[in-house]
Amino acid sequence: MQGVLNGFTTIGVVIAVGALLAHLRIVDLGAQQVLSRIAFFVASPALMVITLSRADVHQVLSANLVASVAGITVAAGTYIVLARTLWHRSLGDTTIGALSAAYVNAGNLGIPVASYVLGNAAFVAPTLLLQLLVLQPLALGFLDADAHGRSRWWQLLTRPFRNPLTVGSLVGVVLSVTGWTLPTVAAAPLGLLGDMAVPCMLVAYGIALRLGPGLGRAGSAAELACTSTLKLFVQPVVAWFVASVLLGVEGHALLAIVVTSALPTAQNIFVHATRYHRATVLARDTILITTVGAVPVILLVAAVLG
């Protein structure tokens, strides 16, 4: 359990640094925008190249993937139905809300949790690749379409592949599948740039927490409760049901699937929300609630299934 606590503590400390810098007026919301842009356009794509080039993409074809898809689909789908019929949200706001309800922190939190709690970082690879190669490009396509108005079908299909995060992900997958290794002259600067991604995201998030509207003050409390409940409870329960009842997964493999699904909403959803100016407060608040709430949830899952 120490690995879970260490992972959450590390994230919390870096977020607190961003909030402290804002509180001391060393930085302002302009700095938060700059950090988010650096993370979106430079650091995160570099991180994706390095991370995916080292991943085993063949692990995507597993029970882990099937259960992960089911959990994401039910959580995101439930929010989409409610957002469009009950809250009447726009396409962009609905997309960010769906990501908040279903997109897990498989990178900077999932990897250490998988390493220390599950004993193998590879357990998070299927979810990581699914999100980077399918869910994220699809969501970014919708966000781009919402930001730029109506587009022709070919523009909608090709726009995600002009997004730096998608390009970085695809390059990483090609390197993994082919076994090619980047020369040091390329790998070293990419690794250095990629190392900025998580700190930039977390510090920017801390600034927004301190200088933005208070928790729940700039949005629907019911909507926030919905995204948080879907992420913390519905998604892992659906993943458990599919893996255990339908696919017959048992033991440590089942624990890995449920723990991965119970991870909190990823910080990069806040980066996307900021970049496209859609549902920023909802993303921020959901990340905060699920990051805090995931600690007891994952500890409970580990106690029951471990």
UniProtKB/TrEMBL annotation:
UniProt signal peptide: none
Membrane topology: Multi-pass membrane protein
Stored InterPro entries: Mem_transp_PIN-like (IPR004776)
Presence of keyword Plastid: no
Keywords: Cell membrane, Membrane, Transmembrane, Transmembrane helix, Transport
Transmembrane segments: 6-27, 34-55, 61-82, 94-117, 123-143, 164-182, 286-305
An annotated GO cellular component: membrane
The organism's place on the tree of life at top rank: Bacteria
Subcellular location: Membrane
Keyword Electron transport part of the UniProt annotation: no
Main localization (coarse): membrane
One GO term of the biological process aspect: transmembrane transport
Name of the molecule in the record: AEC family transporter
Source species taxonomy: Bacteria, Bacillati, Actinomycetota, Actinomycetes, Micrococcales
